[in-house]
Write the C-alpha cells for this entry.
Amino acid sequence: MRTEMSAPSETTDLTGAVRDVLGETGAIGATVRQIATRLDHHPDRVAAALATLRSQGDVLRMGRGLFVLKDFERLAERADFVDPESFVERFEREDGISLGRYPGPITFRSNETVPVHRWWPYVQGYSAEFVAGVLAASELPRRATVLDPFAGSGTTLVETRRAGARALGTELLAPAVLAARVKTHFELDPRELARSAERVLRRAEQRAPGPLPFLRETRRQFSDRALRDLTRLRDSLPPEGGAVANALRLAFGQVLIPSSRLHRSPCLGYGRRLDESARPPFERFRGAVAEMVSDLAELEPVRERWGPPAVIRAEDARAASWPSRSVDLAVTSPPYVNGMDYVMNYKVDLAWLGYARSYSDLRELRRLEVACDNLPRRETAPYLDTSGVEDPWLAEILHRIRGNLERKRTYRRDDVHAVVHRYFADLRPVLDQVYRSLVPGGRFVVVVGDSLLAGVYVPGDLLLARLGVARGFRIASVEVARRRRSGQRRSFLLRESIVTLERPRSAR
Ligand SMILES: C[S@@+](CC[C@H](N)C(=O)[O-])C[C@H]1O[C@@H](n2cnc3c(N)ncnc32)[C@H](O)[C@@H]1O
C-alpha cells in the first residue's frame, strides 16, 4: 500500500530507504518512479526524500531523471567499473592496435547543404566528405565495386557513383531505400521532375482531404491544416515505381517532419508548437523539388565520370549475399549497441508513405533490424543464455550487465544483456558476408560507436574489431572521429570510431 501521509520519523525512514535502494542500484541509478515502485511509496514522497538527500550532497541527479548516490558519481573511480581507457590499453596489449584520430567531419550534419545528400536529411547518416576521403585513399581500380550493407540514405552509394565506381547496398528501412534509390539515380530528368511536381500540386489543390495514416498520435503530431494539405498531397502523388514518381515521394517524405510538431534530435520527439502560420506543406514540397532540380543540373556536366547505376536491395544485410571476391571496398555504419530504434524514429515516414499499414508491420520490421533496446522479449529470449559467447571481452561485459540488472531489480528491462548479446550476434553474419564478398586485400571500413548500458561500459568499436579478427580480418586501424555524450549520463563521454578491417591477401 502506498503511504500518502507520513510522520517525521517515517520521513527519516524513507530517506534511509531511498538511500538503500540507490546503494543497490549502484552505478545504474534509479528514477523517482522506480524507487517509489520498489518501496511501494508515493512518488511525491520519494521525490521529497531525494530532494533532502540532494541538499545534503549525498545524491546526484544524472541524465534522463536518474538519481545515483554521490559515491557512484564517477563511474571510472569505482572498483567494479571497467572504464574506456582500460579497454583501450587492453586492446593495445592484446590486439596490437593503438587508437588514432580522424580529423574531418563525420556526422550527417555537414551533408545538409551538400547537393543530392540534402534531399533527405538522415540524422543517423555519416558525412559525404568522410566517404569521399575513404574512396580517394583506397586507390580503387577503374570500375571498382563498393558495398554498403547498412546503406541508410545512400551516402556511400552516392559518393561511390560520383567517383565512377559501382555501388551496391542493402537496407531494410523503406524510406531510406527510397532515398538511396532516388539520390543515386543521377539520370533523373530535372525538367520532367519540375513539370510533374506542378501537376501534383494542381491535383492536390483540387482534391478533398484524404484518410489519416494508422498512427494513433497523428492528430497530436500535426495541425488540422497540415493534415488536410498533407493528405491531399499524398493522394495526388503518382504510384511508386518510375524515377520521377519516386523522386516526388521523396520530396513529400522530406516535408513531413518540418510540417509537424516533431523533430529528430536524434530521436523523434515533440518539439515545436503547432504553428498555423508556419510554411504550408505545398510550399515546402515545391521547395524540396526545386532543390532536386538545381542539384541535378549540377550533376549533368560530369556525366562521363558517373559509375554504373547503383544496385540497392531492400534486404536484410544478415542474409544478403554477394558473389565471392567481387567487392573491392565496403564502407558502412551499422546501428550502434542499444542505440537507435529506427522503426520508432521513422514511423511517421513509414506510415505516410504507405510502407507500414499497421502496428504489426512496424513490429515485423523491428524484428528484422539489428537489435535495439525496444525489441520484444520473445526476440531476445534465445540470447539470455550467454554461456556460448566466445569473445572473452564480450562474455565479461554481458556478465557485468546481468550482475547490475540483478542488483537493481527494477531496471526498465531485465534482459539488457540478451539485447547486447543479440546485437553482436546480428553483426556476425554481416561480417561473414562482407568477408566473403571482398577481394583479398579489400577493406571493410565501419563507423561505429561505444555505449554505456546498465552502468556498464561497452566498447562497441573495439568489440566489432575483435569479432572481425575472429572472422579472419586483420585490423588495419581504429580512429576516433568524435566524442559524444551518453544519454544515460550526460557527463560520461562516449566516442564514435572508424574501424578499418582488411581481408588479408593470403586469404583463409
Ligand atoms: C547508421 S545507419 C546508416 C546510415 C548511412 N551510412 C547514411 O549515411 O545514410 C544504419 C542503417 O542500418 C539499417 N539496418 C538495421 N538493421 C538492418 C538489417 N538487418 N539489414 C539492413 N539494414 C539494416 C537501418 O535501417 C539504418 O538505416
Q: What stands out?
A: The two ends are 64 Å apart (CA to CA).
